[in-house]
Specification:
Largest sheet: 2 strands, antiparallel
Structural class: mainly alpha
Strand content: under 5%
Radius of gyration: 19 Å
Length: about 280
C-alpha cells in the first residue's frame, strides 16, 4: 500500500509551487490587463477550466467562499474576457513567477517534474466525483518542464481538494463551519480567513455558536471532539489522495518528498507568498 505519510509530505512540500499563483503580482497584473480585479481574477482564472463557469458551479466546487463574493465576480467576468485568455494568462504568470524565484535553475527540476507528472497522470485515471480536478485534467499539458511541474502540482492539489470537500460533507461540516474550525486550530490567522472568504461577522459568530453547541469548540479554540473531527477529515483527505501517488514506488515517493522540499522552500524563501506584493 502507498505510504500515506510520504504522500502527504510530497503534496505539502511541493504545494507552494502551485499555491503561489494566488499571491504573486505576475498573476494580478495579467488579470488586470484582461479587465479583472484580483478577486474576480482569482475566481475566473481558477474556474476557467470549466469554461464560462456559473457562480453556482464555483460556489459548489470552491466550497468555502461566501456566495455573494462569488456572485460579484461571476458571471460578470465572462463579459470582459474569455476562459481561454485567462488560462493562458494564468499559465504565463505561473512561469514568470517561478522563474523570478529561480525554480527553473534547480538542477533536479527534470527529475521532480517526471515524478510529479506520473502521479498527476495516475490521478487523471480517477476523475469520478472530483469535478474541479476533472476540469483541469482536461487541459493540455505544457511542454516546458517548469510549467509541467506547475501543472502537475495543480492537478494534484485539485485532486486532493475535491477529496477534502467530500470528507467535509461526510462529517457534516459546512463551508463556514470548515473555516471556523480551521481558524480555531490556530494554523491560519482568523483575520485572513475572514477577509479572503468574505463571510459577514454576524454569520461567523453564529457559526461559532453552532459549533460550540455541537461540542466542537471550547472558547475560541477546538475542543477535544473538534480536534478529533478535524483529524478525521485530514486523515480521510490523505486516504482519498492516495490513488495518485500509487503511481510511484515507495522509493520514488520518498525521493519526491525529498526533492519537493527544495522546490517548496525556494518558492517561499523568494517571497512568492508575500500577500502584500
Amino acid at each position: 500500500m502507498t505510504d500515506v505519510r510520504l504522500a502527504r509530505q510530497s503534496w505539502r512540500r511541493l504545494e507552494p509551487v502551485h499555491g503561489m499563483i494566488y499571491f504573486v503580482p505576475e498573476a494580478t497584473e495579467r488579470y488586470a490587463a484582461l479587465g479583472l480585479d484580483s478577486r474576480a481574477g482569482y475566481f475566473a482564472s481558477r474556474s476557467a477550466a470549466f469554461g464560462t463557469a456559473s457562480a453556482e458551479l464555483v460556489i459548489a466546487t470552491f466550497y468555502n467562499f461566501h456566495p455573494a463574493l462569488v456572485r460579484r465576480a461571476l458571471p460578470a467576468a465572462w463579459q470582459v474576457t474569455t476562459p481561454e485568455k485567462l488560462l493562458a494568462a494564468r499559465l504565463e504568470a505561473a512561469g514568470a513567477a517561478l522563474r523570478r524565484a529561480g525554480i527553473h535553475e534547480i538542477d533536479t527540476l527534470a527529475e521532480t517534474t517526471e515524478l510529479a507528472t506520473r502521479a498527476a497522470e495516475r490521478a487523471c485515471e480517477h476523475p469520478q466525483g472530483r469535478p474541479l480536478f476533472a476540469a483541469h485534467a482536461a487541459l493540455p499539458w505544457p511542454s516546458e518542464p517548469l510549467l509541467r511541474l506547475w501543472h502537475a502540482q495543480t492537478l494534484l492539489r485539485e485532486f486532493r481538494g475535491d477529496g477534502h470537500v467530500a470528507a467535509l460533507l461526510t462529517e457534516g461540516v459546512g463551508p463556514l463551519d470548515a473555516l471556523v474550525l480551521h481558524a480555531a486550530s490556530g494554523h491560519v490567522p482568523t483575520v485572513f480567513l475572514k477577509f479572503s472568504r468574505d463571510w459577514p461577522e454576524e454569520e461567523w459568530a453564529s457559526a461559532e455558536e453552532r459549533l460550540r453547541e455541537r461540542g466542537l469548540l471550547a472558547g475560541d479554540g477546538l475542543s477535544e471532539e473538534g480536534a478529533a473531527l478535524r483529524q478525521r477529515v485530514e486523515d480521510r483527505t490523505d486516504e482519498l489522495a492516495l490513488p495518485a501517488y500509487a503511481a510511484l514506488s515507495d522509493d520514488e515517493l520518498a525521493r519526491l518528498a525529498e526533492l519537493a522540499r527544495v522546490f517548496g522552500r525556494a518558492v517561499v524563501d523568494n517571497g512568492l507568498f508575500n500577500v502584500s506584493a
